[in-house]
Amino acid sequence: MQAGVIAVQGDVSEHAAAIERAARAHGEEADVVEIRQSGTVPDCDVLLMPGGESTAISRLLAREGIDEEIRDHVAAGKPVLATCAGLIVASTDAKDDRVDTLDLLDVTVDRNAFGRQKDSFEAPLAVDGLDSPFPAVFIRAPLIDAVGDGSGAPINDGDDVEVLARWDGDPVAVRQGPVVGTSFHPELTADSRIHDLAFFETVEVSSQ
């Protein structure tokens, strides 16, 4: 399995390790490639869109022509996991004109709704499809403050948005078609079950 990690900004080593770990648990091998320019996404079976600074990420994706390749990837039904800033870029509305969204998930996102980095926290999170709470790490996390009926994301039009997890009543993990988005950072824990949900048909039982 070729797994592409969008690497136009920031350190993506944690995501690379997480998908390798998840693949091994399913008896597969992940060939991880870091994507910084166009031409690589079409060869990938799965994509990961990590955190970082959403305005910079969206600008660099557009500049390098990677944005259209990601849209084509999703239109072909291939999976994407978008976390934190990746979720913001994947949304239909970032409530910030500086972010050129990819319109993969029919959600509205409030950037940094959980506060600044000093307000970051970890919490056990009940996630649909998991057998036990997931240790979710929130770092300057965005908040999903509106979920559409699926029609707002042209690439996934017709697929309902499924809320997978909530924190204090607000959605923090969603799925629409082949795209999973989370407000938190699943790669910052040894628990790979969010990657299981995004990329594999079965979820390994937690050993946490």
Automatic annotation (TrEMBL):
User: Which pathway is this protein engaged in?
Assistant: Cofactor biosynthesis; pyridoxal 5'-phosphate biosynthesis
Organism of provenance: Halolamina salina
Report the family membership. Belongs to the glutaminase PdxT/SNO family.
**Which Pfam families does this chain map to?**
SNO
Q: Which InterPro entries match?
A: Class_I_gatase-like, PdxT/SNO
| A GO molecular function held by the record | pyridoxal 5'-phosphate synthase (glutamine hydrolysing) activity
Q: Which UniProt keywords apply?
A: Glutamine amidotransferase, Hydrolase, Lyase, Pyridoxal phosphate
Under PANTHER family, the record lists: PYRIDOXAL 5'-PHOSPHATE SYNTHASE SUBUNIT SNO, PYRIDOXAL 5'-PHOSPHATE SYNTHASE SUBUNIT SNO1-RELATED
- Give the highest taxon in the source lineage: Archaea
The protein's matches in Gene3D superfamilies, at most eight in alphabetical order, are given as: 3.40.50.880
- Give the positions the UniProt entry annotates as the active site: 84 (nucleophile), 185 (charge relay system), 187 (charge relay system)
| Keyword Disulfide bond (UniProt) | no
Tell me, what does this protein do in biology?
Catalyzes the hydrolysis of glutamine to glutamate and ammonia as part of the biosynthesis of pyridoxal 5'-phosphate. The resulting ammonia molecule is channeled to the active site of PdxS.
Subunit: In the presence of PdxS, forms a dodecamer of heterodimers. Only shows activity in the heterodimer.
A Gene Ontology biological process in which this protein takes part is: pyridoxal phosphate biosynthetic process
Q: Which residues bind L-glutamine?
A: 52-54, 111, 139-140
- Its EC number is 4.3.3.6, 3.5.1.2
* Catalyzed reactions per annotation: L-glutamine + H2O = L-glutamate + NH4(+); aldehydo-D-ribose 5-phosphate + D-glyceraldehyde 3-phosphate + L-glutamine = pyridoxal 5'-phosphate + L-glutamate + phosphate + 3 H2O + H(+)
User: What is the protein name for this chain?
Assistant: Pyridoxal 5'-phosphate synthase subunit PdxT
User: Is Hydrolase set as a keyword in this record?
Assistant: yes
